[in-house]
């Protein structure tokens, strides 16, 4: 079984590759707002994933030491989702709101696909 840092590292590489594809689509096609929204949402989604990994590691460390830990990780992730939507709403000529929301979920969708592939290869 892989540890959380290995999973996060692989996830980060996949997400940056996806962002590069979106940047290519932004340059080549005329759908600049859609691809800009996808890039914005994916970056905020990656930030959320990083917060989740960091908070999980801190929780594991505190649990191993027998301490209780209060965290605001969920509030930070919720606030970053609101921030991504607020940026897309404030600048509709640069970012499409729907594609921003879709982009926000892309790191998690990539995680699910990558984990399925990992477990299929293990069997």
From TrEMBL:
Localisation per UniProt entry: Cell membrane
Highest taxon above the source species: Bacteria
Pfam families: ATP-synt_I
Transmembrane segments: 12-28, 34-53, 74-91, 97-118
Record GO cellular component, one term: plasma membrane
Membrane topology field: Multi-pass membrane protein
Tagged with keyword Transmembrane: yes
InterPro entries, A to Z: ATP_synth_I, ATP_synth_I_Bacilli
Protein keywords: Cell membrane, Membrane, Transmembrane, Transmembrane helix
Protein name: ATP synthase I chain
Origin species: Sporosarcina pasteurii (Bacillus pasteurii)
């Amino acid at each position: 079984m892989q540890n959380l840092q290995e999973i996060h590292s692989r996830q980060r590489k996949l997400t940056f590759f996806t962002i590069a594809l979106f940047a290519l689509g932004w340059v080549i096609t005329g759908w600049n707002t859609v691809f800009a929204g996808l890039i914005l949402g994916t970056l905020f989604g990656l930030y959320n994933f990083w917060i989740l990994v960091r908070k999980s590691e801190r929780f594991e460390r505190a649990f191993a030491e027998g301490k209780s830990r209060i965290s605001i990780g969920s509030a930070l992730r919720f606030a970053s989702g609101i921030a991504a939507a607020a940026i897309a709403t404030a600048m509709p000529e640069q970012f499409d709101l729907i594609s921003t929301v879709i982009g926000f979920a892309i790191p998690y969708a990539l995680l699910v696909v990558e984990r399925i592939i990992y477990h299929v290869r293990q069997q």
